[in-house]
Amino acid sequence: MFRAGRGHRPRLQRCARSRETRRGYSRNYKHVAPTALRLHLRRACSCCDFFAGVKLGWERNVSKLPRCLPAFLPAVWIKNSTSAERLTSMSHPTHKHIGVIGLGIIGRGVSENLRRKGFQVFVWNRTPRPVPNFVGSPAELAEICDCVQIFVSDDEALLQTVRRLSEKLTPKHVVLAHSTVAPDSMRAAAEIVEHRGARFVEAPFTGSKAAAEKGELVYYVAGNEAALRDARPILEASGKEIIQIGQIGQATAIKIATNMITAASVQAAAEALALIQASGLPLQKFVEAMQANASHSTTLAMKIPKMIERDFEPHFSVKHMLKDIQIANRLGLSQDLELAVTAAARDQLLEQIEQGHGDNDYSAVARKYLPKTEPAGSEETQTADEQVQTSAEAIIPVPETEEPKLEQENRTMTAGETTAPVLPGGDAKEETDSRRGFLRQLLRRARQLLKQPVSPKQG
Question: Where does a domain end: 62, 91, 120?
């Protein structure tokens, strides 16, 4: 736009003395900005900040803009922004290079949303992934980005990541921790970051795979006001709501409490489905009834149909939900609280882990209540009583001559366990039916009985 060289200044001086310049235009630059605006542009271009020069010229020459410039300037910026807001936004641009650590279910969705919103995203994961802008270490990520989001699974992973990140942290950095961990671990991570002069934002979230992909997570945030203000545009790229909680550690407590309700409600829904099925009712009728029930929620609306279909594709895995529930139980014990429902939900999740379903969705707790049904007419199909008897006899063989001894041993079991029924006398058919009922209850105590196996009576 402007020619450099010795002849440039005299030419501008001649233009400044001309009558056209006094009216706001240059004789030789009919369709360029006024002289004052051109000088601002020239000064800005020398600093590689063209738009800042346009802003300064706009501030001082609003009435003298040439007819070519308004079409060039952003219409929304001209119409809606005040002078102070424009000056602040141009002088202090938002973060454009964002680092994401952890490319699990949520981390992948968040990084994709950031890219769609125009951010330059650099990523790191403990297991290398073939994704754009993958860097070699957390420290390298901190060298490139001044804002880093951490999506790792547990306390140790968070603290280890923050320590590696802290090697390159400076006062310009903002670190956002999105992990659900113990409040003490979150405070320890904040202390490591702030010791380097950087700012720390605690930001656990609610929402699963679908919410992360759609940018509809809800963040619970805690930290100082300046850090939260800088982090807000980044959180808005992947979230629909940001709820400010208070001090570091308190947002995590909120997240753990909400997960207690989520785990308990899904466990209750699984048991309710089992009751409906045992009553001979169509499970779809239960779905319709729940839609008009006060206890209905978005979680149940999403999970119940998948439990009926036995679709346990992970949106939030069993192992991660178990980790959160175990944190809740530890917090309850530390405060002398009895969390009976939470403990029951923990036991069901732990059972899924022991069966090898830790990577399934946490709604897999319904697997034990809604077993797969064999096709009608199959020769391998057995009645419920036959299945129970076969399973029980495979675990604990019980001969007929040992029934009185079993009855005596069941009476000596620890308090709190259900006592076994007394087997009645009578003919062989009655004894067989009673044994079946006895074995159904005995299955629940198989582990205890296996530790004290029953040997047949020597004849």
Answer: 91
Question: Quick one: residue 141, left, alpha or beta (phi over 0 = left, psi -120 to 50 = alpha)?
Answer: alpha
- pLDDT single digits (tens) 293-343: 998 898 999 999 999 999 999 999 999 999 999 999 999 999 999 999 999
Q: Which of 210, 230, 248 is the last residue in one of the domains?
A: 248
pLDDT digits 0-9 by tens, 173-184 = 999 999 999 999
Number of domains making up the chain: 4
Residues of the domain holding 111: 97-248
Q: Is residue 188 part of a domain?
A: yes
Give the integer Cα–Cα distance in Å for 184 and 443: 41
Same domain, 289 and 355: yes
**Residues 411-443: pLDDT tens digits?**
444 444 444 444 444 455 555 556 666 666 666
Residue 331 in domain:
yes
